[in-house]
Specification:
The chain is α+β, with helices and mostly antiparallel strands. It folds into 2 domains: 2-208, Glutamine Phosphoribosylpyrophosphate, subunit 1, domain 1 (4-Layer Sandwich); 242-599, Rossmann fold (3-Layer(aba) Sandwich), CATH 3.40.50. 37% of the residues lie in helices and 17% in strands. The chain has 22 helices and 18 strands. It has helices spanning 15-25, 52-59, 100-106, 119-131, 134-144, 186-189, 235-238, 272-275, 286-293, 312-323, 341-354, 365-381, 398-409, 426-429, 447-463, 472-484, 501-509, 530-541, 545-556, 561-571, 576-585, 590-599; strands at residues 2-8, 32-39, 42-48, 66-72, 84-86, 89-94, 150-155, 160-165, 171-175, 178-182, 194-198, 201-206, 213-218, 304-307, 329-335, 357-362, 414-416, 490-492. The strands form 4 sheets. The chain has an 8-stranded mixed β-sheet. It has a 5-stranded antiparallel β-sheet with strand order 5-6-7-8-12. Helix 10 (312-323) packs parallel to helix 11, helix 10 (312-323) packs across helix 17 and helix 19 (545-556) packs antiparallel against helix 20 (561-571). The longest helix is centred in the middle third of the chain and has 17 residues, at 365-381. The two termini are 45 Å apart.
């Protein structure tokens, strides 16, 4: 996934605008970058394994009559970089083609690179030659490929530039005879570029010059192994993972065990969590939400932002917002380094099928993962269940950048797909914070609850000084945006639509939504952290967030206690593939980390 941009220029004074387009594209990721630009009658292709701003300084393409570039979050084809040159086509592509392996085989095409983008020029070449028709070639690309395609394609042998998009994540504008291209509207509208159009399908531009020579330049790749670790099964590591079935007293109504913080059982064996439970999945009429959003509708224009992680519930909420609420959303994704490849592929599937623009904000993933490594290293020195949540502190800037996207798009309304049954009191409970049964939100908010929580956390910092590291500012600024900063103009979809697991899974199946191979549940499978922290909780306490989620379903009357026990037991089986991916991503020794966890005294 990347930000793409370009200029077809009639003047030689585009330096400032080109810089602005490139800087905005870098919001989507800075793992690598690339440029295609005209110079002395030829097209130069420069690829770099660093930020687009640095590449722009080095090659200075500012007086070129044609410039196309990208700034990339490496997702598919980690060892390849764009622009891709094949069969006389030059392509930069934002998105993920999820059926690319099948296409190479079914179309009998010779694959040369790992990156999915290569299939685009390969298909174009095949089908344009078949019918001698550019529109036919583009239509075949869009019909055969599954997943998001937003691409800028230079075809010097045809003397054209093509813009192709199946989800609208591509815009053009004109000013003083120049054509500007961007993945997003904001860098065009904020710079008063006129004649702005959103691209759906294909838009063609004739090139004034004929370029007979393509000169490619590679910058040597540095190691990206830790960015997107490849899974290689290691039976020795796999066998280190423990899975016990402790004989714990469990609530006679739900399945919470005696190791749950602050749990008590009455004379009938019913726990206090059940006694104090307030039904959450009892929704208001959907028509009420329809009336609430009416004032935000914009006659077919983009009218709401949907925070979109690629997980089960955000994908289902996007489906409902488009299909039932009939709105025109922008899906907003914050990638902090723990969104898995599976999660990204599901993002691509949903956005292409629903024709939804996806705005991605990518953190400095290397730095985020370094922060996780520092905090996990500190935790392993003095393991404490109440401090496990610090490993996910880096994702809380999701809320900060949601506000930024609102400002950039001038769209105030955001609709969240937060599952009402995901409340997990035990994570703070293990830190010594008792449950607040009156709280109906998934996240606590306000100064009082935060002060109580962080005072307990600070005591653990004192006991394990390694927590005082360079990640602290990132951790606590994220907490501010999650818990303290006030949010306006937002609704929770599942306040108005009952959440039903079977319905959710059935609805997603129509999009060829992908499940993980190492667990039977569709929950948390796009989150790179979940397999690891749930292993900690289950190994030490004999339960995980799967038990609390299934217990909430029991209380709602959605499933039986027997079914909940069966499901939780299967879901608590260690997810070796997910755990190894996580530890490889943050460069923590698997054997050392698992041995520490296995040696923590059990609570049973």
């Amino acid at each position: 996934m990347c930000g793409i941009f370009g200029i077809i220029s009639k003047t030689d004074n585009n330096k400032l605008m080109l810089k602005k387009l490139a800087i905005h594209a870098a919001q989507r990721g800075t793992d690598s970058s690339g440029l295609a630009y005209a110079q002395d009658g030829r097209l130069n292709i420069d690829r770099a394994d660093y930020k687009i701003q640095r590449l722009m300084k080095e090659v200075a393409p500012y007086k070129s009559e044609l410039v196309v570039g990208h700034s990339r979050l490496a997702t598919n084809g980690v060892y390849d970089n764009q622009p891709i040159v094949r069969d006389e086509f030059i392509v930069v592509h934002n998105g993920i083609i999820t059926n690319v392996d099948e296409l190479w085989e079914s179309e009998s095409l010779d694959r040369q690179l790992e990156i999915d983008t290569e299939i685009i020029p390969a298909l174009l070449s095949k089908y344009i030659k078949t019918e001698d028709d550019i529109d036919f070639g583009v239509s075949k690309v869009l019909s055969l490929c599954e997943g998001v395609i937003s691409a800028i394609i230079i075809a010097p042998h045809l003397n054209i530039l093509m813009l192709v998009s199946n989800n609208g994540s591509l815009y053009t504008g004109r000013d003083s005879g120049n054509t500007y291209i961007s993945s997003e509207l904001h860098p065009l509208s904020s710079n008063n570029i006129g004649e702005i159009e959103q691209v759906f399908g294909c838009k063609l531009f004739s090139l004034d010059s004929h370029y007979e020579e393509i000169v490619e330049k590679e910058v040597a790749l540095v190691s990206r192994d830790a960015l997107l670790p490849k899974f290689i099964h290691n039976s020795e590591k796999d066998q280190l993972l423990e899975f016990h079935s402790p004989n714990l007293q469990r609530c006679s109504k739900c399945i919470l065990p005696e190791t749950m913080p602050y749990i008590r059982f009455n004379e009938k064996g019913v726990c206090n969590y059940c006694e104090n439970y307030v039904v959450r999945n009892q929704t208001k009429p959907f028509s009420e939400l329809e009336n609430l959003v009416e004032q935000y509708r914009r006659n077919g224009e983009r009218d709401c932002i949907v925070p979109f992680s690629g997980g089960r519930d955000s994908c289902h909420s996007l489906h409902l917002i488009v299909k039932e609420l009939k709105m025109k959303p922008i899906a907003y994704t914050y990638d902090w380094g723990m969104v898995t490849d599976l999660g990204r592929r599901n993002i691509s599937r949903m956005c292409s099928a629903l024709e939804v623009e996806n705005i991605i904000v990518a953190a400095n993933i290397k730095r985020k993962r370094e922060n996780i490594k520092k905090n996990l290293s500190a935790w392993l020195k003095n393991p404490h269940l109440g401090m496990v949540s610090i490993l996910t502190a880096g994702d809380k800037h999701f809320f900060k950048y949601c506000q930024k996207v609102r400002e950039q798009t001038n769209i105030s309304l955001n609709i969240w797909g937060t599952n009402p049954l995901e409340t997990t009191h035990f994570k703070a409970g293990f830190l010594g914070v008792p449950p607040s049964f009156e709280n109906k939100a998934v996240y606590n908010s306000g100064w009082s609850s935060q002060m109580a929580y962080h005072s307990k956390r600070f005591k653990e910092f004192i006991l394990s000084p390694s927590y005082f590291n360079s990640s602290l500012f990132d951790t606590y600024s994220g907490e501010y945006w999650r818990s303290i900063n006030k949010r306006t103009d937002y609704f929770h979809l599942y306040d108005y639509k009952a959440w039903n697991e079977k319905e959710v899974d059935n609805d997603l199946a129509q999009y060829n939504w992908e499940w993980a191979k190492d667990t039977p549940t569709s929950w948390r499978i796009g989150d790179g952290t979940a397999a690891f922290y749930n292993y900690i909780y289950y190994t030490v306490a004999g339960f995980s967030e799967h038990d609390t989620f299934r217990s909430n379903q029991i209380r709602e009357g959605d499933i039986s206690r027997k079914e909940a026990l069966e499901k939780a037991n299967a879901e608590n089986v260690p997810r070796y593939e997910g755990i190894q991916w996580y530890l490889d991503a943050i460069d923590i020794d698997f054997k050392g980390a698992i041995k520490v966890i296995n040696n923590i005294p059990k609570l049973y």
